[in-house]
Structure formats: structure tokens, C-alpha cells
Design goal:
The complex is a heterodimer of chains A (312) and B (273). By secondary structure, chain A is an alpha/beta fold. In chain A, helix 8 (202-214) packs across helix 12 (299-310) and helix 9 packs across helix 10 (257-268). Chain A contains twelve helices and 14 strands. Chain A has helices spanning 6-20, 38-43, 55-67, 78-84, 86-94, 124-129, 142-154, 202-214, 232-242, 257-268, 288-294, 299-310; strands at residues 3-4, 24-28, 48-50, 71-77, 101-105, 135-137, 159-162, 168-169, 184-188, 193-197, 219-223, 226-228, 244-252, 272-278. In chain A, the strands form three sheets. Chain A has a seven-stranded mixed beta sheet with strand order 3-2-4-5-7-6-12, sandwiched between helices. A five-stranded mixed beta sheet of chain A has the order 9-11-10-13-14, with helices on both faces. A two-stranded antiparallel sheet of chain A has the order 1-8. Chain B is α/β, with parallel strands linked by helices and 273 residues long. Chain B has a single domain (3-272), classed as 3-Layer(aba) Sandwich (Rossmann fold). A five-stranded parallel beta sheet of chain B has the order 1-2-3-7-6, with helices on both faces. In chain B, helix 6 links the parallel strand 2 (141-146) and strand 3 (170-176). In chain B, helix 1 crosses helix 3, helix 3 (36-46) runs parallel beside helix 4 and helix 5 (120-133) runs parallel beside helix 6. The longest helix of chain B is centred in the N-terminal third of the chain and has 22 residues, at 3-24. Chain B starts with a helix and ends with a helix. The chains are: A alpha/beta (312), B alpha/beta (273).
Chain lengths: 312, 273
């Protein structure tokens, strides 16, 4: 499966939007290169605010800019943004509901795989999900990341866009739509089991669905690209049809996609749901594919979990 | 306005604080008193504001970075006509829009959330950049920071960014009363001397008596002449200034005056308002 950078794709959308919206400005805590925004900076040199390695400052400056009507986008690594500048996001962006966009790079193990724990971030979604007023987008590949970035800019108020390392597997064909706030059925063989996934783990979830199909288990794969607000109605509909599910995410199992799915399920359609993600441990450095396999996110792990979920 | 008139306004604001914190039964009166003279000059002489149109894009901006001193901000806004004076008695009460710390969406005239210390200079940097990028000329972003909050690292992150972008439209007052919640600033940290540090960060630096109305005016005029650097006006001040039992007494960082103490304050300020 070929790869394409979600970072490049998202920035293409932002650069295109900036041509017709002069309010768009990028705030960089030394992250222009990381965010693949050098072309943006060449085209709009006055619309990149470079603050040096200072994420807290970047978020507060974005808040100040937004009060004047600008549309700032802060780009940084997911953890430096959501952890180091956590309070700035919460108090000075989310609380007043300012129109600040946040792009977090290296989301999950697939992000900073070889860098190790300091540069892998599996808490970002959980942190932001607990903040009132922040919307969270977790696109599955570059094609979706571009549409997600466009949707983010069209949405008023704080939005977080989770991106990866720049080597994300291509899952979706051109023309695949992106719907803000809605789940989307990626593939449906039947209602034996539902597989919910978000982000760059989608290719593995898709392979697992195919393998299940080969083995006679007919499942449905659902892309939950908007983790907040969560699509209660859409998820409930799938749960009612399948009555068991697996949730797959490149994030700690606490606070992210699987938590959100379980919150919906326990209120609207309680059923057996197995959760595949990082099991509350800090992983190691390694090649992405090996790392995901080592920490329980292989295709076989998903297949096994789906079969387990089907057992009553 | 004359120096005497502004000085009387500052004292009126001080008494407003004593009275409203007493009625609310909660708040930080001491930190309001050291900035009263700066507030009087900014709100009643210097700043371009329109109480009828609080979000007027070309207005000057004001950030009370030491947001716990909001009773005096609310008093200034009320006396400026942003909302009825009677509203002050609702301070910190459910049902009132006067939140425990400034809220830009609930309180007319408040330009940003503040209260979590250290953030005002960075937010002001963003505002100053935003105004400049949109071609708004002849407006300024004013920030008041406490001395204790300059212990926060983000202050210095913002100091670097504002200097890098040569924000001549950003004017910061440092309220140097040498008190913070836990004691003297000089005991809790190695922050002092303050002006040297801002100098090192390439700011235009002035040092004045923060209770000298004339000096505050002059310092603002000087700051406005510098167009390629942000300005800091380091103000030597007295926490609790002009309220006899509060002066330089950190017990009044957060404390509610009794009815008797309100009377003492009224008496002390009677001929000075």
C-alpha cells in the first residue's frame, strides 16, 4: 500500500484557502518545516508568525490574533501542543470559543515511531476531548486530511486536527467525501460485527475486515473521523445493527475513540465492545509497522478481537 | 483632565473596589490598589474606547494580565459606561455577568479572558500583531502585568516574540509592588531587578513611580514615540495603596473588608475623590 503525507495534504488545503481568505495566518513554534508549510511561507511570507520553540506563546498569540478577527492556525507536534500548551488551549482558546485552529503532528505511535515516547503522542485526543468547546478531527489518510483541513477552516471556533508523521498509508480513493461530525461506513460485508476506527490505523482495520470476510465473518468498518462532537446517532445505528463491536485507535485506550464509542454505547445500545489501542503503557522506538504489531494493533489482533466480540 | 482629577478618579475606583468586594464577600482588593492610578490614566484619559460599541475594531485593547485584580477593572468599566454601576454588587455571584476573573464574552469592555497568570503579554502580542496585519493604525494594546506573574516562563517567550516583531503598538505596565500570593517577590524568586530583564529582551524600558499620574502620562507618551520596539513601563507601586490597613500588607491579597473597614476606607478617601 502506498503512502502519502497527511501533513502535506492538510497544508495544501490551507494554502488554497489562504488565497481567498486573508485572515488565515499560521503560528509556528519552529514547526514550519515539520508542518510542511514552507510553500505556504514562500507564498505568504507575512502570514507565518514564527515564535521560536515556544508552544504556549504560540497558542496565546493565536488567541490574541483571533480576538482581532484573524483566523490563526497553530501547528506543532501533537503532544507539545496539547500538553505543554494545554492550559492555554483550554483557558484562552476554548473557554472564550475563539476561532483558533490547532494542528497536532505525530499523532499516535505511527507518528513519532522511531523517535520514542517523547515524540509519540497517544494522549492528545483524550486531553482535548475533556475540554468543552474543542472539536476533534482524526482523518484516516492524506486524501481525508486535505478535506478535513478544509472542513476545519469552514467550522467556527476551536478545532483540533490530528495528523501523522508524513508516511500515512493511502486508504481512500480520490472523491471520497469527508463529513464533519458524521461517521462514515467504509466497507460493509454484513452485520456480524462492527469495526470502528479513526486515523492512520484505518488501513489495518480495512485489511482485518477483508480477512474476516475471507474467514466467513461479515463485518462493517466505520470511520469515525470526527471524535468530538461524536456522532451518537450514526454510531448507535451501527451498534443496533451489529450488536457487538471493536474500536481501533492509535491512542491510549483511555480518553480517545474507544472511550467515546463506549460512552455512546452504554447510553444508547449497550453491547460487547472490545477496545484496541495502546493499553495504558509507554511504548518504545521502532519501525512503525513493527511497533504497532508489538503493541497489539496488528491486523491479526483486530481479527481476533472481532471474533471475540461476537462471542456472547 | 488634570492630574488632580485623575488622581481623584483613581481613589474613587479604590473605594469602588472596597465596597464591591465587601458586598460580594469575596475578591482580591489589595492587588487592585497598586494599579489604580495606571487604570485611571488609561481608562479616563488615554485609551480610545466606545462603551456603546465595546468591540469597535479600531479601539485600543486592554489586558489585565493579573486578572485577580478585576474588581478595579469592573469598576473602571462601569464608571466608563460599559454597564450600570449597580451591577458591581453582583461580583462573583451566580446570575451576575461579573465573573471571578475577566471573561471577554460575558463582560462588555473586556478584551480577553485573564486570570491564569503570565498570559497577558502573549495574548497582547497576538492582538498587536492582528491589529497591525489588518492595517489598523493609531491604536495600542495595553497590558498590566504583576511582578509575581513575571516568574512564569511564558512572559519571556512572549517578550521575545513581541521584540522580534517590533511591536511598537504594545505597551505593558509592570506593577512592581513586590508582593505575590505567597509573600515577597524578592523572597520567592530572583526576578528583581525587573527592568534589566526586559532590557535584555530588547524592549523599550522605562521606570517610574506607579502612583505619579504625571509620570504615567509621560511614560505613555514616550512609549508611543518608539515605533520599532514594544514598551514596558516598570512601575514602583504599593500594594493596598491609599487604604490605610491594606498598604503594603499582603494579608489583603485576598480578603473581604468588613462594614467597619469599608467605613475606614471611605473616611480615608473622603477628601481625595
Amino acid at each position: 500500500m502506498s503512502t502519502k503525507s497527511t501533513r502535506v495534504a492538510a497544508m495544501e488545503a490551507i494554502q488554497e484557502a489562504a488565497r481567498s481568505d486573508e485572515r488565515i495566518v499560521i503560528i509556528s513554534p519552529d514547526a514550519v518545516a515539520a508542518a510542511r508549510a514552507t510553500a505556504f511561507r514562500e507564498e505568504f511570507p507575512d502570514r507565518v508568525i514564527e515564535v521560536g520553540i515556544a508552544e504556549q506563546d504560540a497558542v496565546d498569540i493565536a488567541a490574541g490574533l483571533a480576538t482581532t478577527g484573524m483566523k490563526p492556525i497553530v501547528v506543532s507536534y501533537a503532544g507539545f501542543l496539547t500538553m505543554r500548551a494545554c492550559e492555554m488551549i483550554r483557558t484562552f482558546v476554548a473557554y472564550p470559543g475563539l476561532n483558533v485552529k490547532l494542528i497536532g503532528l505525530n499523532g499516535g505511535m505511527l507518528g513519532g515511531e522511531r523517535e520514542g515516547v517523547t515524540h509519540q503522542f497517544y494522549e492528545d485526543v483524550g486531553i482535548l476531548r475533556s475540554m468543552p468547546g474543542v472539536k476533534i478531527l482524526c482523518p484516516a489518510d492524506a486524501q481525508q486530511a486535505k478535506l478535513a483541513a478544509k472542513a476545519m477552516l469552514e467550522e467556527e471556533g476551536p478545532v483540533y486536527l490530528r495528523l501523522g508523521s508524513g508516511r500515512e498509508p493511502e486508504v481512500f480513493e480520490d472523491g471520497t467525501p469527508f463529513a464533519f461530525g458524521k461517521v462514515r461506513e467504509v466497507k460493509k460485508y454484513g452485520n456480524d460485527v462492527a469495526v470502528f476506527a479513526a486515523g492512520f490505523i484505518m488501513d489495518r482495520a480495512l485489511k482485518a475486515l477483508e480477512q474476516l470476510h475471507q474467514e466467513g465473518v461479515e463485518g462493517t468498518l466505520v470511520d469515525v473521523s470526527t471524535i468530538k462532537p461524536i456522532d451518537c446517532e450514526g454510531i448507535t445505528e451501527v451498534l443496533k445493527a451489529c450488536d457487538c463491536a471493536v474500536a481501533v485507535e492509535d491512542h491510549n485506550i483511555y480518553g480517545g475513540l474507544s472511550s467515546a464509542i463506549c460512552e455512546v454505547a452504554c447510553q444508547f445500545h449497550p453491547c460487547k465492545i472490545l477496545r484496541l489501542g495502546l493499553k495504558d503503557v509507554y511504548p518504545r522506538s521502532g519501525v512503525a509497522a513493527e511497533l504497532l504489531d508489538a503493541y497489539g494493533l496488528s491486523v491479526q489482533n483486530i481479527v481476533d478481537a472481532a471474533k471475540e466480540a461476537m462471542k456472547k | 483632565m488634570t492630574v488632580d482629577e485623575l488622581s481623584r478618579i483613581a481613589n474613587r475606583l479604590r473605594l469602588d473596589v472596597v465596597e464591591t468586594v465587601h458586598l460580594a464577600g469575596d475578591g482580591h482588593p489589595g492587588p487592585c490598589m497598586s494599579i489604580a492610578d495606571i487604570m485611571a490614566v488609561l481608562f479616563f484619559e488615554e485609551m480610545k474606547l466606545d462603551p456603546e460599541n465595546p468591540r469597535w475594531p479600531e479601539r485600543d485593547r486592554f489586558i489585565l494580565s493579573k486578572g485577580h485584580a478585576c474588581p478595579i477593572l469592573y469598576a473602571a468599566l462601569a464608571r466608563k459606561g460599559f454597564f450600570p454601576y449597580e451591577e458591581l454588587k453582583g461580583l462573583r455571584s451566580l446570575g451576575s455577568f461579573l465573573q471571578g476573573h475577566p471573561d471577554m464574552n460575558k463582560i462588555p469592555g473586556v478584551d480577553t479572558v485573564s486570570g491564569s497568570l503570565g498570559n497577558g503579554v502573549a495574548i497582547g502580542t497576538g492582538m498587536a500583531l492582528g491589529c497591525r496585519m489588518q492595517g489598523i493604525k493609531d491604536n495600542y494594546v495595553y497590558v498590566i502585568v504583576g511582578d509575581g506573574e513575571e516568574e512564569e516562563g511564558i512572559i519571556w517567550e512572549a517578550a521575545m516574540a513581541a521584540a522580534k516583531y517590533e511591536l511598537g503598538n504594545l505597551i505593558v505596565f509592570a506593577d512592581l509592588n513586590n508582593h505575590q500570593s505567597g509573600g515577597h517577590v524578592t523572597d520567592l524568586s530572583s526576578l528583581y531587578p525587573v527592568p534589566d530583564k526586559w532590557q535584555a529582551f530588547h524592549w523599550h524600558v522605562q521606570s517610574i513611580d506607579g502612583h505619579d499620574i504625571g509620570a504615567i502620562r509621560n511614560a505613555i507618551a514616550e512609549a508611543k514615540k518608539v515605533t520599532d520596539k514594544p514598551s514596558i513601563i516598570c512601575c514602583k507601586t504599593i500594594k493596598g495603596k491609599n487604604i490605610p490597613y491594606m498598604e503594603d500588607n499582603n494579608a489583603w491579597h485576598k480578603r473581604t473588608p468588613t462594614a467597619e473597614e469599608v467605613e475606614i476606607a471611605r473616611e480615608a478617601l473622603r477628601d481625595k475623590m
